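About this split. The held-out portion is used to measure sequence recovery: a designer receives only the structure tokens and must propose an amino acid at every position. Recovery is the fraction of positions where the proposal matches the reference. Here is one held-out target exactly as it appears in the evaluation file.
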């Protein structure tokens, strides 16, 4: 078996005195979409923030492409090939769409490659191309989500971390965003997806982990979890 692209081994993360992640372990293999589902406050965002270097684990290791990245500063982690689309989108409202996308490529020096990726982003998100000179604050919620995703893709990540991409979006837009996540994955980017909309997440993922109050309680093939009685009761409204 090839080594997993990302391997989290037994990490503990604290917010002050709060023990937010309790010895969690998970793996993401190259080319997969892996989803992390769980109730609000289960530790899903904390997991992503720890991988992307915004939080430091107290114990345990995080290995990416064979390198231990636990505690490495966030900007360095982007250089290693991990990019995060934060919860609540966090686009730079005063800047134009174009300026936001340029910022996504700030770690890169390959001008031709940046142009090529810009073209790809505009193909994935035609609406961003139409609004390239508008300030990001004037975009709809769905368009801001697209911009946040496009901006993350501009660093040409090997692994894309998505934190609640469907949050606050209308059902039709959620479908569109999830189609785009599948397209991004098909074009060669590995995806770790944190999502409250468990139905949607499990429908596109290869594998899934269920997080409950800082512990992983279930894991397996996404279809198996989608069919599991316990998961259905807890997360799929049935």
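Reference sequence for scoring:
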């Amino acid at each position: 078996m090839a080594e997993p692209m990302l391997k989290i081994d037994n990490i503990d993360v604290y917010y002050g005195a709060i023990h937010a992640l309790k010895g969690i372990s998970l793996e993401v293999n190259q080319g997969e979409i892996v989803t992390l589902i769980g109730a609000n406050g289960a530790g899903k965002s904390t997991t992503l923030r720890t991988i992307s270097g915004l939080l430091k684990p107290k114990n345990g290791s995080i290995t990416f492409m064979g390198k231990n990245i636990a505690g490495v500063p966030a900007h360095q982690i982007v250089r290693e090939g991990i990019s995060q689309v934060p919860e609540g989108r966090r686009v730079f409202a005063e800047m134009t769409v174009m300026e936001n996308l340029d910022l996504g490529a700030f770690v890169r020096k390959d001008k031709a490659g940046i142009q090529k990726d810009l073209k790809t982003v505009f193909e994935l998100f035609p609406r961003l191309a139409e609004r390239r000179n508008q300030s990001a604050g004037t975009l709809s919620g769905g368009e801001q989500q697209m911009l946040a995703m496009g901006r993350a893709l501009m660093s040409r990540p090997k692994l894309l971390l998505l934190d609640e991409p469907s949050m606050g979006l209308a059902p039709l837009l959620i479908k569109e965003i999830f189609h785009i996540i599948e397209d991004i994955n098909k074009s060669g980017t590995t995806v770790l997806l944190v999502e409250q909309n468990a139905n949607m997440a499990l429908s596109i993922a290869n594998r899934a982990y269920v997080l409950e109050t800082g512990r992983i309680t279930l894991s397996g093939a996404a279809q198996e979890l989608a069919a599991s009685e316990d998961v259905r009761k807890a997360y799929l409204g049935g």
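Annotator remark: The radius of gyration is 17 Å.
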